[in-house]
Specification:
homodimer; Phosphoribosyl-aminoimidazole Synthetase, Chain A, domain 2
């Protein structure tokens, strides 16, 4: 069945049925002019929003709709994680071409709600028609301990720069999906999964803010260089990155060989793995390791914050040039 | 200059400069992974979101960009008004074609901030590129007295149905802009203004909720019949509307004559004037008039809530048929 046969309001009813009942602190969810939220005392709210366009952020022909729904929410959950927050509500606005199959939408919603799990309530949105391609806009509201949010402007000279795990795999997966090189299925699969099903670092973000051991973080959506650059500009500092400390998976190394590129290109300029990049005062390093016990996160120190305003790269003790392409600019590329 | 020459981050800097500094209760505005909001005790938060697509909701050739920016925010402010809330933050996500003139965007942002005025802080968003046409997604966060939000599900049999002012003018203005008939400039001007520059009923909504005299409201975005229908379904009631009580402006009557249609067609099925439709218990009518003294709002009783589930229309004491086209369905029309 096409979405134009189902109609807007029947579609909303389907989403409503799938989204389930609201739970505290959501007082009123989907179905009114706005949702109602009753935040707890001692908490502040964090709000983020992201937009995904067909043909720019995703290709509908080559992305399973479930993965697209999943990722649409994850990119926002990752921003909440980067603030050290706990996500509560999601809002989903969809612009759809009227010839869209209802089954495709049902799969999209299924993936979206899978990413929401038990912790995030779908609480509203908008459904409109589009003349050319889908547009997906998601907003997430979360909360964080009062005064404990992780900010971009909180890096200080001498801080250790941590990365929450391997990055660049998503960019490698995308390059593979775009037929830029060939790979064995067993090597390509985890890269494609990194691209289609990234996992937001919510537990890590939450521990970083609640513990008070960290004040500064960002999620990597545009590549290590560009996202670290955002922190440096906001904090008026520079940074030194040690390439040999950046973890690379075997699959990424193999893909870089097949694509005939430097294996660090994807981590530095690729983005979309949604790892956290965060800054820790040297005196807090031991306490951090303690706080993260029990959390299965392979965090890795990859650099230090310095005076100045530039990012310098080192590999095995020797300075190396910074790649020219510094990440993604939506209007220029 | 084209937006692709300016680049994404320079564009964000321009918006940041125009949006100004955050004020309480906004702790952190544009520029981080998420914004931070510290709500006051005794208040609940109301959140709403709307999406506007080029070619579906607006024609860029015939809409001044300032008006488009203004209206993009107003449609959301109107939802906050319909909950009886006070808007605090706005989030603006824009998908733009890279050949967009920077001046057009500056005018859009100017109109958006004009609608925001002193009461709403632009606190975040996203800017992405679009392959075909603009997409605009806006989210607004507001607050409301704890437990006092105006809900669609709160109508009761015997309630008086109020309308906050003339409606249908926006639909008449749109029909004129689409060249469906001709009019003198002096007649067309207020209709076009109603379409391009609707005013959200924030003061009225706020008094209705804070006074405790009203529990049920909706804003008219899809026409009286469809929006009253939403209330009837949510509240499991029916309604009787008195057409002769619905205020019609001279310009609307003249336009209906020129278009050769029933003057009530636009108010009943047209929408987009963003008037409030709200329900008042009979015993509260006197107190309401008292509460609204000093507010320049020509509220008008136009019907009563009844048992059943249908909406019946009366004109000068006689029942008249309900027009077939009941409002807007995004996927069906």
């Amino acid at each position: 069945m096409k979405i134009r046969e189902l109609g807007e309001f029947a579609f909303i009813d389907r989403v409503l049925a799938a989204a389930g009942r609201e739970r505290t602190p959501v007082v009123l969810g989907i179905g009114d002019d706005a949702s109602i939220l009753a935040p707890e005392p001692g908490r502040e709210l964090v709000v983020t929003t992201d937009m995904l366009m067909e043909g720019v952020h995703f290709l509908r022909e080559s992305t399973p709709p479930e993965d697209l729904g999943f990722k649409s929410l994850v990119v926002n959950l990752s921003d909440i994680a980067a603030m050290g927050g706990n996500p509560i509500q999601a809002y989903l606005s969809l612009a759809l071409t009227p010839g869209t199959e209802v089954e495709e939408m049902d799969m999209f919603i299924k993936g979206f709600l899978e990413a929401a799990g038990d912790r995030v309530q779908l609480s509203g949105g908008d459904t409109v028609s589009s003349q050319a391609g889908w547009a997906i806009s998601v907003t997430v509201v979360g909360d964080v301990k009062e005064g404990a949010a992780l900010r971009r402007a909180a890096a200080a000279v001498g801080d250790i720069i941590y990365l929450s795990g391997p990055t660049g795999e998503s960019a490698a997966g995308l390059a593979f999906l775009l037929d830029q090189f060939s790979l064995k299925d067993v090597t390509a699969e985890p890269l494609i999964r990194a691209h289609n099903r990234p996992v937001p670092e919510l537990d890590l973000g939450s521990i970083l803010s609640e513990s008070g051991l960290c004040a500064c973080a960002i999620d990597i959506s545009d590549g290590l260089l560009q996202d670290l650059g955002h922190i440096c500009r906001a904090s008026s500092v520079g940074a030194r990155l040690f390439l040999d400390k950046i973890p690379l998976t075997d699959e990424l190394v193999e893909a870089a060989k097949a694509a005939n590129i430097d294996p660090y290109q994807w981590p530095l300029t690729g983005g979309e793995d949604y790892r956290l990049l965060f800054m820790i005062r040297e005196k807090n390093v031991k306490l951090l390791e303690e706080a993260l016990k029990g959390l299965d996160s392979p965090i890795q120190p990859i650099g230090i914050v310095e005076k100045g305003e530039s990012i310098q790269l080192f590999n095995r003790g020797r300075q190396v040039p910074v790649p020219e392409k510094g990440g993604h600019d939506h209007f220029r590329n």
